[in-house]
Amino acid sequence: MEQPKVIDTKLCYHCGEEISGVDLVIAEKHFCCAGCKGVYQILSANNMCAYYAYNDNPGKRLEGNTHFEYLDEQSIVSQLLNYQDQKSSIVTFYIPAIHCSSCIWLLEHLYRINPAIFDSRIDFLKREVTISFKHQEISLRKVVETLVEIGYEPAINLQDVVKENSNTVNKSLILKIAIAGFCMGNVMLFSFPDYFGLTDLEPQFKAMFAWLNLAFSIPVVFYCAKDYFLSAFASLKHKHVNLDTPLALIIAVLFLRTFIAVVFTGETGFADTLTGLVFLLLMGKWVKQRTYHHISFDRDYRSYFPIAITTLKDGKEKPKAINELVVGDRLWIRNGELIPADSILMKGDAWLDMSFVTGETDPQPKVLGEIIYAGGKQMGEGIEIEVVKNASQSYLTSLWNKDNYTDNFKQNFNDSVAKYFSIAVFLIAFSAMGYWFFNHDTTKAWAAFTAVVIVACPCVLALSTPFTLSAILALFDKKGFYVKNTDAVENLAKCNAIVFDKTGTLTTTENAKIRFTGTLTDEEKALLVSLLNHSSHPLSRQILKSISYGKFYPISKYKEIPGKGIRGLVNEQMVLAGNQSILPFDIVPNERSGVHIVMENEYKGTFIVEQEWRSGLSNLMARLQDQFALKVLSGDTNKDEKALTSFFSSAATIKFEQSPQQKLTAIQQQQETGAKVMMLGDGLNDAGALKQSDFGIAITDNINNFTPGCDAILKGSSLTLLPNFHQLSKDGLKIIKISFAIAIAYNCVGLYFAIQGTLYPLVAAVLMPISTVTIISFTTIATRFFARRNKLS
Amino acid sequence: MNILYFLVGCSVLMALIFLAAFVWSLKNGQHDDVVTPGIRVLFDDEIIEPKEKNSEN
User: Fold this and answer.
1) Nearest alpha-carbon partner for A125 in B31, B43, B26
2) Which of A275, A311, A475, B12 has the most neighbouring CB atoms within 10 Å?
3) Domain contains A394
4) Average pLDDT over every residue of A470-496
5) Strand A629-633 to A653-655 pairing
6) CATH number of the domain residue A129 falls in
7) Structural domain tally of chain A?
8) Average pLDDT over residues A79-102
9) Residues A178, B57: C-beta atoms closer than 8 Å
10) Nearest to A104 among B1, B36, B49 (CB)
């Protein structure tokens, strides 16, 4: 099919797509479609062609057209704006199309297109642009439309309005690290003379250094370590011990001993150990908190829904925010818009793509008076519907609001060990104290008690876990597996059952093959190509690519009916392409779905986009079935049962026609039998199940696409590595346990001194960094070793 | 050796100034985005319109 064209291939100057069909030329530059050409014209008119200088073909093809009337509505605008004063407004948008330096250049030079936009700043990693504009000269809607014109459509959805600011948490942690590090550095400096025994030569300095050290440890304890105390109190209130409880106790004991030593005896205390400990603990916390800025794991239905919809009142269109919709509102849904709430169809021809809800991609017709569930996407002309349930109560969103997730409290290794650890430490500490009391040595008794608590610091536990797991996280990241946080890695290791979704998970549309059921003569091909050339619909482009025929006819009476298809008079012949609803009544296609082709009232055949199975599936399942109970829950019909059974062994359960609710319940039932379930799915219809599972993985071919809330996002091409990922996470837990054993060995040395009541500050100060360095280097080396063994490095 | 009292005071003061500078830069948002400025600095100045107004602020 592919003709040998080497020199002939032309790429669109704007988007870099191969030009098939019409070749639009201006200024010796070739464009694939009117959209790309339009962007170029705007840019060249504003003297902004440097956009094309920084990268080849930096643009993205424009798709669809969105309506922004709702941005004229003051109540919606004020929800979106970050800031507004008399003259200027500031707004931040998430723009998925940002991908290269040209994008930065262009979006930061918006003032050339419209001077009223006086400043724009990009955050490249977050794909966000912050725009300042003079709202008296340009409306927010115009700003957004300007962005759309140049090919950067912002994603404005319901979740944007309810934005939570996670950045500030991180900032306060960095501030704490800075202060703890500052204090630690100074304390170390002033402790050095003590380490070498120099202070005995000049005792007046000894006292001063001790007082300085005490002063430096005050902000460390009362500001930097504040969270440990709060967390310890909170967990004690719930009669349960977490890792922060012993940590808080140690910090308190260290501080009190230092305070007493300095104030009453003039000795140096444990300020060096104290500040070092807090600094390292905070570092561990920071490593653990580092996460992906560009991927959102907490998306729920809100990010799929637009923020506003057109309502009809007394025959007039009026945009209204979705969370303000009430029962009885009349809505006007255009082609390609989502139904925001469960409604009844009142007027128009509804063809709904319910793939968000059921996974089924073929549009379904609805009749007047029928209930339409939220999440359906209208494919075709506008329809009028009446809301019967609020957006937050509709069938789809109720999956999220169920209370079944509340018991999802997952205790990690650290917290479960912390309990036994604390008990052991207290046992040793009290027996040491008891022994010295028995020997009538009260000072030694107190010294021994506090020293045991200091030495038996679970600092290593607090460090080895984040360091190991975040190293594993980074390794996963390189292989296209993005895990939400380090706690999730622990959950991954514990899984012993896997549930797969079918469509989009085991199959892919990425390199979908297009198959034609009939045969076309060369003449007919030319007719079809001429017609399809005029359409910018993705399906038309895909079909065009598969035909690649270089002869065109002029065309007249071209009409594109949104959501249905296209027709036109080509070379005196009527040609139709589209789904069943565009065909004349007397023609019945052989296939139910796909793009049907009709020429001069004669059915020619259907183009079918075939979903392909991902490669290496049978191999993958063979590796997985020894360790996991496998299950497939598909929302689709059982048409692929044969193919599926060939991948899975007979032990695997395969179920079809599962609703989102059924998927969720199936996982719940499996969990009740004690299984730890990993769920792999895509799309909104799996969202409930993903959330319910112990480890939910959303599979996607493009990580910038919207994925439902989950614990991890997996690139489709990395699916075959799943057993390796799981093995590495298990090895990670092993590393943590080994490092725990190493730490206990160090603690035994310290305890030897501590029990005797002869723990000098110097011993404590040396022991802690040494054990920390050992642990961190051990975890780093061990993680690398296991990564290589699992073929993941 | 009493001069040391003065020197220690100086060193602590210097360190505090640097800490304050860091806190200021953090609050000022200088650490929010560490990638984009690195790309931004590579853009050439325009020679097409030399009299163009700069929108820096």
Assistant:
1) B31
2) A275
3) yes
4) 85
5) parallel
6) 3.30.70.100
7) 6
8) 81
9) no
10) B36
Do both A324 and A361 map to the same domain? Answer: yes
Examine the domain organization and report whether A104 and A209 are in the same domain.
no
Query: Which residue of B1, B26, B48 is in closest CB contact with A171?
Result: B26
Residue range of the domain that includes A217:
166-289
B8, B31, B39 ranked by CB distance to A104: nearest? B39
Terminal-to-terminal C-alpha distance of chain B: 51
Query: pTM (2 decimals)?
Result: 0.74
Same domain, yes or no, for A32 and A91?
Answer: no
Per the prediction, chain A carries an average pLDDT of 79
Cα A443 to Cα A380: distance, rounded to the nearest angstrom: 86
Among residues A260, A234, A231, which one has the least CA distance to residue A247?
Answer: A231
Question: Is the CB of A175 less than 8 angstroms away from the CB of B26?
Answer: yes
Q: Dig out the tokens for A348 from the structure.
A: 């128009």
* Within-domain flag for A766: no
Confidence grade of residue A407 (pLDDT, cut at 50, 70, 90): very low
A366: how many CB neighbours lie within 10 A of its CB?
21
pLDDT at A387 over 70: yes
Q: Could you tell me which residues of chain A have a Cβ less than 8 Å from any Cβ in chain B?
A: 47, 50, 54, 101, 104-105, 108, 111, 118-119, 121-126, 167, 171, 174-175, 178-179, 182, 185-186, 190, 202, 205, 208, 212
Whether residue A628 is found in the same domain as residue A483: yes
Where do the DSSP E strands lie in A453-493? 481-483
Burial profile A732-747: b = 16 or more Cβ within 10 angstroms, e = fewer: bbebbebbbebbeebb
pLDDT tens per residue across span A312-368? 877 777 777 777 778 888 888 877 777 888 888 888 877 777 766 665 666 677 878
Note whether A484 and A622 are same-domain residues.
yes
Measured CA to CA, the distance from residue A545 to residue A395 in angstroms comes to 40
Q: Given a cut of 60, is residue A758 above it in pLDDT? A: yes
Q: Which residue has the tokens 């003590």?
A: A194
Q: Are residues A170 and A285 in the same domain?
A: yes
Query: Does the pLDDT value for residue A7 go beyond 70?
Result: no
Which tokens belong to A339? 């139904």
| Domain of residue A591, CATH code | 3.40.1110.10
CA distance B38 to chain A (A): 10
Last residue in a domain, options A729, A753, A783: A729
* Residue A471 included in any domain: no
In the numeric block, the tokens 């140096």 are attached to A268
pLDDT tens digits for range A564-623 = 778 888 878 888 888 777 777 666 666 666 788 888 878 888 887 777 788 888 888 888
Question: Is residue A640 located within the same domain as residue A714?
Answer: yes
pLDDT value at residue A409 = 47
Q: Does the pLDDT value for residue A76 go beyond 60?
A: yes
Cross-chain Cβ contact B8/A105 below 8 Å: no
- Minimum CA–CA partner of B17 in chain A: A182
In sequence order, what are the beta bridge partners of A697? Answer: A680, A712
Task: Examine the fold and report which residue of A598, A613, A628 is the final residue of a domain before the chain moves on.
Answer: A613
In this structure, is residue A586 part of a structural domain? yes
Tokens linked to A622: 């063979």
Q: Assess whether A3 and A98 both reside in one domain.
A: no
A143 closest CA partner among A96, A107, A173: A107
The amino acid at residue A198 is L
How far apart (Å, rounded) are the C-alpha atoms in residues A389 and A396? Answer: 11
More confident: A347 or A512? A347
At residue A136 the predicted structure's pLDDT band, cuts being 50, 70 and 90, is confident
Q: Please say if the pLDDT value at position B48 is more than 60.
A: no
Residue A423 binned pLDDT confidence (cut-offs 50, 70, 90): confident
The β-bridge partners of A654 are A632
CATH number for the domain spanning A498: value is: 3.40.50.1000
* Residues of chain A neighbouring B7 (CB-CB closer than 8 A): none
Is the C-alpha dihedral spanning A779, A784, A790, A792 positive or negative? positive
Query: What value does the mean pLDDT take over residues A131-151?
Result: 85
